Amino acid sequence: MFPPQSANSIPIQFITIPDPSAYKVVQLSSSPPPLIRLPLPNTAATPTYIFVPNPSPTRKRQVPPLSPADGAVAPFLMSSIQPGSMSDTASKVTTPPAAPLSPTNEVSPCKESPKSPVVVEIPQAVKDYIQQLKIHMSQVCQDMEAGLRMNAHYVNVSVSQREIARAGKNTNRCLDKELIITGDIDRQKNSMGQSQIFDSLNGKRYNVLFGNAGMGKTTVIKKLCLDWSIDCIPQFDFVFLLDGKQLALTEPVHSLQTLLLSQSSFAPRCADPDGVYAQILAAPKRVLIVFDGFDELRHYEVLLQTQKKELVASLQKDSKAQAFTVKQLFSSILQRVLLPGCTLLLATRPRGTASQLLRRADSFLEVCGFTPANVETYVSQYFSDPGLRESALDFLKSSSYLNLLCWNPALCHLVCAALEQCKSEAALPRTLTALCHKVLCLKMEKDRGSTESLPELCSIAWEGVKSNSSVVPKGRTVSTQLRAFSLRTGLLLSQSLMRRTLSKDGILLWANPFLQSYMAAVHLSLSRTVTDHSFLQTLPFQMGAKGRRKPQREEMELTQRIAAGLLFHNRTELQSLHSYSETVFRDMVASKQALVMKHLEGLCFGDLSSAQILEACNYVYEASFTHQESGTDTSAKMLTHLASNLPELLTFRGVPLNPPDVFTVQNALRAGGAEGRSFCLDLEDSGIQICGLRTLVALSNINTYRACIADVVTLWEELEKRSDEGLLQEAVSKFKIHPLKATQVCHIEHLERLVSIHTSKRLSDSSDQSNSLLAEGVPAVKELYKLEFELDPENSPLALPKLWDLLPGLHNLQHLDVENSKIGDKGAEKLANALVSLHSLEVLNLSENCIGDQGVKKLALALKDLPKLHCLSLYSNVISDEGAESLAAVLPHMASLTDLDIKYNKMTDIGAQSLGASLRKCSKVKTLRMWNQCIPYGVFERLKQQDSRILWQ
Ligand SMILES: Nc1ncnc2c1ncn2[C@@H]1O[C@H](COP(=O)(O)OP(=O)(O)OP(=O)(O)O)[C@@H](O)[C@H]1O
């Protein structure tokens, strides 16, 4: 039984609310019929609420009454009812608590102009369209790849929030931003379930979703769309997906309306486009636009170029005119010319810089890939047969590299496809090349007689890799037979760009980036049309400043690696990929192998960038281990050559080290060990996972290592828990942090933790094992001689208090640089307290810190007790005569001081003369720089003449 409509015809609305306990009965803001929770029979599971809306004339939206049978529809109504549609209070009640009110889920007109609320009504026809859109999305977003469905195969992955920082504190490129690569622990702290994305964004409107090829960006987006379709993202009334591939449509025949309602992926036919579009324009804050299909970050850059004024004017005047190109419309959305209030989510591979985009975006997310538990879930879901599932999981456990490749979901899919047909452990692919090869062979087995199509397809793949595109160029003729073969095998997909005009504008694109690279590599390595000369030009590690600076494109790098793998693969295995005679094929391969070897031998490893060193490890791994037996002589020589020539100080700073990368680096280092070599590893800013860190630290030929301090401490704790005393001992004694440059708040937080372990001489309160190990403290802390505090001015205040606290623990510190950190007098006082413990300090840089007389007075007292201090900079502070005099008073007691810089402060001739007089008593001082504009020129000249150690500069 349901309550009748109220007698005076005030519409009554029934809404199903997921968690009724979270809602209160509230009074509406005016004319107060209360909101009543009705204890209705048979509705315990889905309690029904009745809202008695404010019947004031400003209330526009009236939702027709629903019966309980409409339960499924009710959440949709909830999500699309905008706060303010009844009254703010009432609408707050309708918003589920899981999505806290933020600018995103508030309707702008009501929020922004409370005095004259303009409430946007959603007409019934538009509601119907929204419902249709949701239903349509819930169907089309189910498809993943190769017949897999989201509801059966989706694995709930995490997304982590990434941060950007200024490219450098003291550079004049202060507008340049770069993405920070955090350590594993911080990444875990910043990660969230995919369902929390929009809550975590907290109203941020310009969001970027990063992920390398195949890491699952599109899949996360599909999941978001599915969630929206079942009302789990109530912040948005509309979600539209725009595809970068549509940029190929160059005709000026589109409008924003047609772009969203006719061309966006997943949009169904709209019966009332004008009405829907009007609604979109009326409440843009409730619109989410997702851009996908851009291969690289830098591809967005083109869209961020300033648009012509006339174009902007005409777009703003009439965005319904069908007179614009897709590019112009994309640009206008990204540049906030069109729908400025909407939320944007841009998915992209991270390579290729796009400083403009980094500057504009408010938040950066990254798909984290599969954890080992995710891999297990994926494999278990993939193999419905329990027997197959078990053997697949067993196979995977026995093959480390294959297992690590599964970190990338697209590769995990390929691995499952290979495992499905695998009969024995020995037949398991051991490299990326062998994996892709296996998958291709399986596809071809199903499509016999297709070999003749391969060379052409491989050449198309290579053209795509060269031009950094997964789309087959429109002008490229593709024979009917090839087209049919590639679609049948699922190597290519056909996509229609003009959604409303079937296939005419269809494009062909590669379904899987790894298989595209594999096919391109087949072209490079196994085709005679690629001469030795052109093959040579495609080899990696091209030298010169440009080669070092420019990050290699992902698909190109993959192609080069796989090309190396193919060259050294078992020739019988490759038979299906070519139609040459045995001799011709053997000679061609031998010649290319020799080129590769010669190229490698010609490299000066010391000149390679960190990214290139990593590439070399991956490259040589493919060449050496693709062949199931021990590999050919040449490939073994390659590994030995790499191992013998890797720089002893091996740094991967700033280069993301993924799980499979760690494996190939480990492989190269091990080979180095066999050559009697040992290494010092720098793994800072590489994002290496803690298990990878453990693998590398466990190598016996690692002399020292650096890595994110928080991760290292976690590793120590893990080792202690597992009672792995031997490795713990190694991990503690080999760890180094000198010299330390702190550029982020977390660097200081991590250091604080390490110093506390050092001073307490134990890992944690409950530690016993590490007690003896740490009896002398942490070696890395004892050997920290130089600390540079280089946080940007906005973040320094967050970290300075921690710095002051930890400093007394750094007894052996010789060089402290806190330049340009706004420490002020208060900071100077704290520093003065800490200085008492820093007996080894030799250099102290406090330039540009707003230190005044009070601060310098405190410092002066502490400075005189630093027996080794020889260089002090107080350049560009605000010290006046009083401060100068306190310095002058302690100067003769600073027995080791040789250089004092107090230039660009505020003292006048009085302060300068005091310092000059004091200087006479300091025989050790070599230079005193103290000029500033307040010291009269004549006075300064006289002082200089009296003592030549007084300098201008
Ligand atoms: N969360 C997931 N659960 C299950 N499978 C996934 C998941 N994410 C990705 N995959 C698998 O990996 C494949 C590639 O994923 P997706 O297309 O989303 O990657 P992408 O990051 O968009 O790649 P690209 O940069 O090439 O566009 C999917 O087709 C699917 O098979």
TrEMBL record:
Disordered as annotated region, ranges: 84-114
Keywords tagged on the record: ATP-binding, Leucine-rich repeat, Nucleotide-binding, Repeat
GO BP terms in the entry: positive regulation of MHC class I biosynthetic process; positive regulation of MHC class II biosynthetic process; positive regulation of transcription by RNA polymerase II
UniProt cross-references to PROSITE patterns, sorted A to Z: NACHT
Keyword Isomerase: no
InterPro entries reported in the protein's UniProt record: Leu-rich_rpt (IPR001611), LRR_dom_sf (IPR032675), NACHT_NTPase (IPR007111), P-loop_NTPase (IPR027417)
Ranges where the NACHT domain occurs: 205-350
Ranges of Polar residues composition bias in the record: 84-94
GO MF: ATP binding
The protein's name in its UniProt record: Class II major histocompatibility complex transactivator
